[in-house]
Amino acid sequence: MSSKNIIVAFGGVSPEHEVSVLSAMQAIASLEDTQYHIVPLYVTKSGRWLTGAPLLDLENYQDLDALINQATPCTFAHNDLGKPVLQETEKKSFFGSREQYPIHAVLPAFHGSEGENGAFQGACEMYNIPYAGSRVFASSLGMDKVKAKELCRAHGIPVVEGFDFDEAEWAKDQQAITSQAQQLGYPLIIKPVTLGSSIGVARADDEEDLIEAVETSFRFDNNLMVEKAVSPLMEINCSILGAPEDMQHSVCERPLGQEETLSFEDKYQSDGSRQKGMASADRIIPADISDELTDKIQSLSRKIFKTFRASGVARLDFLVNAETEDIYFNEINTIPGSFSFYLWEESGMNMRELMLKLIEIGLKQHQQKIGRIRSYDTNLLSEKAMKGIKGLKGTKQESS
């Protein structure tokens, strides 16, 4: 078994499940014929962890039930040497053994929910596994649009005016929220706080639209945000690759949609197919904007990437007033669709080079982590400490 197994992790309990599969398949295809052996880690829509060769073929995902039956349950574990492995939890035959794959690094290709919000990254940290992309802090913060914008506002990065609320607040006092929306002024944009790919995002031109949009968005998230619509709107995105101490920016792009706010269909089905992921979306690259505006957005992207302590590859999305060219931070995608490879191709880096660079950055960050003191010898479990615990037990008994 190769000592350089790359675990490509994807799927997950998320409305963006299918988008994640597409990004993973693109990454897997790009890493063929490299020094790495690719091992898939597919998380089903119900949260099961599976591995196996059938998961490497995109066509098999047309029949998920059949694919799941062909795959093998697995989990992270440690082998006899204490090294992290991806271990099958079921034998393939009565006399067979559970396969173990020593982990060189993990390449997360999740979008949304537990895969992108830091939870999976936390599991990697617990098992001391090197992984590509942002660490737990940036991942969790980037997934929460409200907290992300609060951080940007605190660092002087412009954001659109708005407010947020949860389902309990809506049920308790809907009138207060609709009044707050009225004061903000229509048209407004309603969006789930912790989702991406424009799922659940809607525009409201009046209170009736607002109520309908809120009820729909609550199907996807318990927390929603309402923001003043930027008009005339121009969306501009830029990708950053690296780490806070060493990063580079891509060219900018201007996505094209059928509406003022890009929908899921605009992003993933604009060519009548989802097979190309974000690469299928209509866009202008490099963005047809002035050099001055391009420089501002690239500079802001670098500042935000560093502020979030992000790493690996991220895409920074901005809302721009097409008349005034005022720029507003919209969100940071710590695992962008298709890893934003289409932006890096325009910057002179192909998909394979991008994936190899991501793995390299992840390995470097892991080395930096394990090079620090990670334990501290104390005498807290000494006999004296144990006597103290016994004393507490005695106090409890006396008082009962």
How is this structure best summarized?
The protein is an alpha+beta fold and 400 residues long. The protein has 14 helices and 15 strands. The chain has helices at 17-30, 64-70, 113-116, 119-126, 136-143, 145-154, 167-172, 174-184, 207-217, 264-268, 291-307, 341-345, 351-370, 383-399, and strands at residues 5-11, 37-43, 49-51, 72-78, 84-88, 100-108, 162-166, 188-192, 202-204, 223-228, 233-243, 246-255, 283-284, 312-321, 327-333.
Features:
400 residues; alpha+beta; Rossmann fold; D-amino Acid Aminotransferase, Chain A, domain 1; Dna Ligase, domain 1; 3 domains; 6-stranded mixed β-barrel; 5-stranded antiparallel sheet; 14 helices; 36% helix
Give a description of the structure.
It is a single chain. With 400 residues, the protein is an alpha+beta fold. The protein has three domains: 127 residues, 3-Layer(aba) Sandwich (Rossmann fold), CATH 3.40.50.20; 154 residues, ATP-grasp fold, B domain (D-amino Acid Aminotransferase, Chain A, domain 1, 2-Layer Sandwich), CATH 3.30.470.20; 67 residues, 2-Layer Sandwich (Dna Ligase, domain 1). Helices cover 36% and strands 24% of the residues. The strands form three sheets. The chain has a six-stranded mixed β-barrel with strand order 1-2-3-4-5-6, surrounded by four helices. The protein has a five-stranded antiparallel sheet with strand order 13-12-11-14-15. The chain has a four-stranded antiparallel sheet with strand order 7-10-8-9. A hairpin with a 2-residue loop joins strand 11 and strand 12. It starts with a strand and ends with a helix. About 1% of the residues have low confidence.
